[in-house]
Design goal:
This protein is α/β, with parallel strands linked by helices. The protein has a six-stranded mixed sheet. A three-stranded antiparallel sheet has the order 1-9-8, with helices on one face. Helix 1 packs across helix 2. The longest helix is centred in the N-terminal third of the chain and has 19 residues.
């Protein structure tokens, strides 16, 4: 898989350091609040498991599968909930964990939905932030690494469901998706 990369953008070591930093920030902000941590499947699963283990406070976990990309590499603009939560968010402090914030459409949709359902607070933690891809006004509350507008894979991010299990984040060679 590494040989399919044009370059490694975020190394395994940088991911570990970023997770530790975010874990400390989240611990400080959520101590005593018992947040509901929502993992946005499938991409955020690796990041979510690492970041909640870096938090020193009680958390409850749930999962949503939300899509705006389908099998392509550009957002369709349509946000579709494939799998909804099992947990009632009313009155809860909710932390959405994302692998990457790109256009902001999916994130805006989720935040609005959870607020509408009565969450006391809704914040977002993302490993990667791609502000140059933003088409709506939406920012994460906790950001790991700001990345350029390139097609990224690894550590949860995929191309046609592959590359998720790479321990780093890389820029895939164009020949694999042209």
């Amino acid at each position: 898989m590494i040989n399919d990369m044009k370059k490694i953008l975020v190394s395994e070591e940088e991911i570990k350091d970023t997770v530790a930093r975010l874990g400390k920030e989240l611990t400080a902000d959520y101590k005593g609040k018992d947040p509901l941590v929502i993992c946005v499947l499938k991409g955020a699963i690796f990041f979510m498991t690492d970041v909640v283990r870096a938090m020193d406070c009680n958390v409850e976990l749930d999962f949503m599968d939300v899509s705006s990309y389908g099998n392509g590499f550009e957002s369709t603009g349509e946000v579709k909930i494939e799998r909804d939560l099992d947990t009632n968010v009313k009155g809860r402090h909710v932390l959405i964990v994302e692998d990457i914030v790109d256009t902001g459409r999916t994130l805006r949709h989720l935040v609005e939905l959870l607020k509408h359902r009565g969450a006391e607070s809704v914040k977002v933690c993302t490993l990667l932030d791609k502000p140059s891809g933003r088409v709506v006004d939406m920012e994460a509350d906790y950001v790991g690494v700001v990345v350029p507008n390139e097609f990224l894979v690894g550590y949860g991010l995929d191309f046609k469901q592959f590359y998720r299990n790479m321990p780093c984040v890389g820029v895939i060679k164009e020949e694999f998706y042209e």
